[in-house]
Each structure stands twice: as structure tokens, then as C-alpha cells.
Design a protein that fits this description.
There is one protein chain. The protein has a three-stranded antiparallel sheet. A three-stranded mixed sheet has the order 13-12-14, with no helix packed on it. Strands 1-2 form a two-stranded parallel ribbon. β1, α3 and β2 form a beta-alpha-beta unit. The chain is built from 22 helices and 14 strands. Among the domains are: 79 residues, Glutamyl-trna Synthetase, Domain 2 (Glutamyl-tRNA Synthetase, domain 2); 61 residues, no CATH class; 92 residues, Orthogonal Bundle (Arc Repressor Mutant, subunit A), CATH 1.10.10. It is elongated, with a radius of gyration of 33 Å. With 551 residues, it is mainly alpha-helical. It is 44% helix and 11% strand. α1 packs antiparallel against α5. The longest helix is centred in the last third of the chain and has 17 residues. Bound molecules: glutamic acid (GLU). Glutamic acid binds next to β10.
Length: 551
């Protein structure tokens, strides 16, 4: 029996050749320098911040080079697939406007691009064609090692401190004749297909990673499995070879954890004579934990999951910015010089990535986000808040829509000025800043009056002010002058300097007076501009609120 006959026995229905696929998926017709990138998540878990970093780079590289960014669903591990994972990935790409040029969404019957299928489980025939070719060439073989045998090989290798894997004498089936292999197959023995590696572990090769620079690796000599017996789908390594070759990917951006697979990928591309894409292995995302710095963990850190940011209501701009600042250290300086430019105009340099880890800091994200939200118009914040609360706080959503104009005015307090307030980093924090402006939320309140104040004094100040001084129609200067006038009348001091020099002469200062008024109507000892707050609340509501103080 020849290797061709063995290959036909294993893949009787595969009649196409690699050349057929080369013709079907020709080199892309793109301008010089255009990059083809892909985001290739496995639907085995939810998207995490590391994926977000990769996809941000993918998107950036493709957009700024007028290239192509596509999405590939790497669903070869059917046992670990999680329901809803693909939809969740699409949702996040939509949310951040990282819209792929090519994709395939089976659930909504939507597909774009001529290099598909973009779902690996739909590409079986293509992979089998490539595997069949290798078997014919004698470069891959069926391996009949059972799970028990492999476990005991691993045990022995661990015990003897040898490298783990099926290589050298452990590759028991690599030299079976086609007849011997065929006989086992006909007897119904289970098998995987392995690469017949031609590498020599004692030989080294040089490899350039765009982020890490030139690196040296030993050649691969492990007969890695290229097809799984369970579902006849390829392993990651083999699918990477076939897909990134046929989809004409120019730049592979992926997590640091794949760097150790470079010897395998190098050998696979060499075996087929295909040009390797360029690689950007992204750093691990790390965080400060007390005095330690450690890897961000899906299990320990809620901020590792992308859903966290949606639940909290961080604007998409903030997250993209925060991730860009850890991708390239010169990003912040660039942003200062180009405050309004889209991030895709930044010239990303893989060399400027930190190989030792990218430090992600939630405080930094909060800062970026606060700045961003403070620069928006109140109507824009309202729209963001509306969209967020529709899903995450329905009651609040009804309230802000019932009083849409009023809410917008509340959101506008101290906004249209040179230094706007920066009260919230995300939309889930807004309610906590403005709740007291709504009677519906103004129940069971805790008045934050200064502790040394008596009930009588509080009532005295509030009654005097609202009965004798407050007038809705007053402009800000008149309002303030009246406040000072009352301050002096009640034995407080309206001049801060004087008060500080002789505090014992007075009951308190104008600041104490305005504080009593502030707490009286809002319950809070700190709020934005009191004049605007009183105006927005209006006479009716103020009266009503005062009737509740000290009861
Ligand atoms: N499916 C792989 C993963 O999710 C893709 C890695 C790659 O981008 O090549 O880790």
C-alpha cells in the first residue's frame, strides 16, 4: 500500500487539492502596506481584557493601513463551547465599533467576505485536504496511542525530567508502514493524525516577533497532533496554519501564551512552503494588588471580564483610551497633542509594547472616563445614561425619562464652564451623585448636618432664610448678597477672613449658613452649586422638603 492509498482510506471523500484552495482564495488585492488582521476568539469563555487588547491592535493596524480586519470563530473545541459566547463577542465588537470587514454570524444568518467560511467547524473539508496532502507526502501519520499510554508517557517524562511530548522514541507509530496503519484503521482502532516532525531540538532558528524583537528557539521535534479524533477537527496549530494562510492574514496579534508555540508554527509553515505572517505577541495584562504586581485574573478580578465595563457603564471611549495607554507608552503624549483625533490615527509601534506586562489601572480608567464624561454635553450624558439604565436600572430609567428636561438640567450643573465637574467615571455612579434632586428618591434620607448644630438652630436658619430672604427670581449676585446679609443678622460672619481671625466672636461663618441650607434641601453636605440646585428644585419642592427636616 502507498501513502496515497492510506490517505484515501482515511479521507475517501476529499478530492480537492491545496492548489484548488489557493485559486479559490487568491492573494488579496490591496494597496501596498495594507495589513490583514484577524480577531480569532474561541467561544469557550467570555471575552476578557486581554482579548480586548488584541482586538484593539487588530482593528488599529487594519484601519490605519487601509487593510482588512476580519473575525474568525475558532470553535474546534466543541466540548468546551459556551452558549452565547459568539453573540457576546459580536456585542462587544459592536459596542466598541470594531466592526469586522469580514465575518460569519450563523445565528443571524449574516456573512460578509469571500475568504470564508469564517467558522472553523465549517472548514473541515479544507483542513482535511491539507492533512491528506501531508499523509500522501509521508509528513503526517495516524497515531494509535491510547489515552492511558499517553498518560504513562507523560508520567515517565515528568519523573525522568525529560521534555513532555511525543517525539523520538515516544513516537511509537510514526514509522508504521501504510499497510500496518491501514490494518489498525480497518479494525476500528481510534487514532489521531500527527505531524511527522523533521525538526531537530538541538538546532536553533531565529525568529522575529514584532513586539519582542529577534528571538531564538530550538526547532520543534514533537509529532504534534494536527487532527483530533473526537470531532475530526484540526488542533489550534494546524488551523492557524491553514486559515491564516488561506485568509491571507499578514499580521497575527495574539496573547503572549502562544509564543512558546512558535517552533511548531515555524515548522508547519516551512513544511508547506508558506510564508509566515508577522506576529505581535501582546504582553500579559497585570495589575497592582497591594504592594504586589500580578497577572490580572478572570477568577479574582471582575475587571478582567469585558462585561464588567458594560455593567458599570463605562463609555467605550474610556476603555479604548485606557487600553491604548498601556499598549504604547507614548500614546498619552500623542493624545495630548491630538485631543480630538480618533485613536486609529495614532501610529502604533509593536516595539514600544512592554514585554514584561502591561499595567492596567482602574484608577487611570476612572480618570480618563471622568474627563471624557465631563466634556460631553448634558444631552449626550443623558443619552448614555438612558441607554445604560434601560438595561441596568429600569426604575431610574423611568424616572429620568419622566423628567427628561429636568434631568438634563441637573446633569448640566457646573458643566458648561472651563473646568467642569468630574463627579462620575461611569454611568452607574451618576445616580449616587444626583438622586437627591428627585423626590421619588428622596425618602428615608440621612441629613448630614454638622454635629454641633441643635435642632433649634437648624430650624431658625432655615425658616429665616426661606421665609424672609429666599426669592426664586433673584439672580446669583442678589442671592449671594442676601445670604451674606442674613449671615450677619443671625450672628454668623459673612467675611471669611474676619471669621478666621476671630472665630469665637461668631456662631459660625457664611459657609456654615450655606451648609445648613444645602443639607436642609438636599440632605447632603456636599453638592454642586447651591444656587443652581435651589433654582432647579424650585419653591414648591423646597417648601415641601423643609417641612420634613428635623421631624
Ligand atoms: N483561538 C485562539 C485563542 O482564543 C486564538 C489565538 C490567535 O489569535 O491565534 O486564544
Amino acid at each position: 500500500m502507498t501513502t496515497k492509498e492510506l490517505a484515501d482510506l482515511i479521507f475517501p471523500n476529499i478530492t480537492k487539492t491545496i492548489e484548488d484552495y489557493e485559486k479559490m482564495y487568491p492573494e488579496r488585492d490591496l494597496p501596498e502596506g495594507a495589513k490583514v488582521t484577524r480577531f480569532a476568539p474561541s467561544p469557550t469563555g467570555f471575552m476578557h481584557i486581554g482579548n480586548f487588547m488584541s482586538v484593539t491592535i487588530d482593528y488599529l493596524l487594519a484601519r490605519q493601513s487601509k487593510g482588512v480586519f476580519f473575525l474568525r470563530n475558532e470553535d474546534t473545541d466543541s466540548a468546551r463551547e459556551i452558549e452565547g459566547a459568539v453573540e457576546a463577542i459580536r456585542h462587544i465588537l459592536d459596542q466598541y465599533d470594531y466592526i469586522p470587514d469580514e465575518y460569519e454570524y450563523r445565528d443571524i444568518n449574516d456573512e460578509k467576505g469571500i475568504y470564508g467560511p469564517y467558522i472553523q467547524s465549517e472548514r473541515k473539508e479544507i483542513y482535511h485536504t491539507f492533512i491528506k496532502h501531508l499523509i500522501i507526502e509521508g509528513k503526517a501519520y495516524p497515531c494509535f496511542l491510547t489515552q492511558e499510554e499517553m498518560d504513562s508517557i507523560r508520567e515517565a517524562q515528568t519523573r525522568d525530567k525529560r521534555r513532555i511530548g511525543i517525539y523520538g522514541r515516544y513516537a511509537k507509530y510514526r514509522n508504521l508502514t501504510p499497510d500496518e496503519a491501514a490494518e489498525r484503521i480497518k479494525n476500528g482502532e481510534k487514532y489521531t493524525i500527527r505531524l511527522k516532525s523533521s525538526g531537530d531540538f538541538n538546532r536553533k532558528f531565529k525568529f522575529v516577533d514584532l513586539a519582542n524583537g529577534e528571538m531564538e528557539f530550538p526547532e520543534n521535534d514533537i509529532d504534534i497532533p494536527i487532527m483530533k479524533s473526537s470531532n475530526l477537527l484540526p488542533t489550534y496549530h494546524f488551523a492557524h496554519l491553514v486559515d491564516d494562510h488561506l485568509m491571507r492574514t499578514t499580521h497575527v496579534v495574539r496573547g503572549q501564551e502562544w509564543i512558546s508555540s512558535i517552533p511548531v508554527h515555524y515548522e508547519l509553515f516551512k513544511t508547506f512552503g508558506f510564508k509566515m505572517p508577522k506576529y505581535v505577541h501582546t504582553p500579559l495584562i497585570i495589575k497592582k494588588d497591594g504592594d504586589k504586581i500580578r497577572k490580572i485574573s478572570k477568577r479574582l478580578d471582575p475587571e478582567a471580564r469585558m462585561t464588567y465595563y458594560e455593567e458599570k457603564g463605562y463609555p467605550k471611549y474610556a476603555l479604548t483610551e485606557a487600553i491604548m495607554t498601556i499598549i504604547n507608552s507614548n500614546y498619552e503624549a500623542w493624545r495630548e497633542a491630538h485631543p480630538d483625533a480618533p485613536f486609529t490615527e495614532f501610529e502604533f509601534s509593536p516595539k514600544k509594547m512592554s514585554a514584561s506586562g502591561a499595567l492596567f489601572d482602574l484608577d487611570k480608567l476612572d480618570n480618563i472616563s471622568k474627563n471624557y464624561l465631563s466634556r460631553l454635553k448634558a444631552t449626550e450624558v443623558f443619552d448614555l445614561l438612558d441607554n445604560w439604565s434601560k438595561i441596568y436600572d429600569k426604575e431610574f430609567n423611568e424616572l429620568i425619562n419622566k423628567y427628561k428636561e429636568y434631568t438634563t438640567s441637573v446633569l448640566n450643573i457646573e458643566r458648561e464652564q472651563k473646568k467642569p465637574r468630574k463627579d462620575y467615571a461611569c454611568l452607574s455612579e451618576v445616580k449616587n451623585q444626583i438622586w437627591y434632586m428627585f423626590d421619588e428618591l428622596f425618602t428615608d434620607v440621612n441629613y448630614e448636618f454638622a454635629e454641633n448644630l441643635t435642632k433649634e438652630e437648624i430650624n431658625n436658619v432655615l425658616n429665616t432664610y426661606f421665609n424672609e430672604y429666599y426669592n426664586e427670581a433673584d439672580d446669583k449676585d442678589t442671592w449671594f448678597n442676601k445670604m451674606k446679609e442674613m449671615t450677619d443678622k443671625l450672628g454668623y460672619c459673612s467675611n471669611m477672613k474676619e471669621y478666621k481671625e476671630n472665630p469665637d466672636k461668631y456662631k459660625g461663618s457664611v459657609a456654615d449658613i450655606s451648609n445648613i441650607i444645602r443639607v436642609g434641601v438636599t440632605s447632603k453636605s456636599q453638592t454642586p452649586d447651591l444656587y443652581v440646585i435651589l433654582n432647579l428644585l424650585g419653591q414648591e419642592r423646597i417648601k415641601n422638603r423643609l417641612s420634613k427636616v428635623n421631624k
